[in-house]
């Protein structure tokens, strides 16, 4: 059985641009026949700063349930609107390590990030965009407020430089999987 679908990975911080990045991925997936995966990671330090192990486990479970609901509320309308299935995952841990693990596991063809406002003084910032560009050789898009859709609401492949085909980019070749 052949699996020639492309894979799009949306890395999100669940902030204001997440809907924009996910909508962009959903529309692009319809144009290039791709699967979409949504990934969010929350720093473990933000979750549990409690010394009691049972309280920490309960807190992690509660935060996990809240995070799952928040992601589901974000993904479900976009999934239904575009009539595509979007795989959603999240993790707690070191943000950079978890993102790197997700990229290595998922092996996407395209990674989409939401545009973030620049902080005035960001000396020790996490700079996820730089991390992704440094450790990922494929196509990375940052969803912005610029109009990338055509008049019918479809992704404008011409604006993305994908007019002829997505193969114009340095994307790893798809392997044929045997059933």
Structure explained in plain terms:
The chain has 179 residues and is of the alpha/beta class. The protein has a single domain, classed as HUPs (Rossmann fold). 39% of the residues lie in helices and 20% in strands. The chain is built from 5 helices and 5 strands; from the N terminus they run E-H-E-H-H-E-H-E-H-E. Strand 4, helix 5 and strand 5 form a beta-alpha-beta unit. Helix 1 packs across helix 3. The longest helix has 30 residues. The radius of gyration is 17 Å and the shape is globular. 22% of the residues are buried. The C terminus is likely disordered.
First-last Cα distance: 5 Å
Low-confidence stretches: 161-165, 168-179
Major beta sheet, strand line-up: 3-2-1-4-5
Architecture, CATH level 2? 3-Layer(aba) Sandwich
User: What is the overall silhouette?
Assistant: globular
Radius of gyration: 17 Å
Helix content: 25-40%
Reported for the largest beta sheet, the result is: 5 strands, parallel
Q: H/E series, N to C?
A: EHEHHEHEHE
CATH class: Alpha Beta
Number of strands: 5
The number of helical elements comes to 5
What class do helices, strands and sheet pairing give?
A: alpha/beta
Give the strand content.
15-25%
CATH topology: Rossmann fold
Q: What's the CATH H-level superfamily name?
A: HUPs
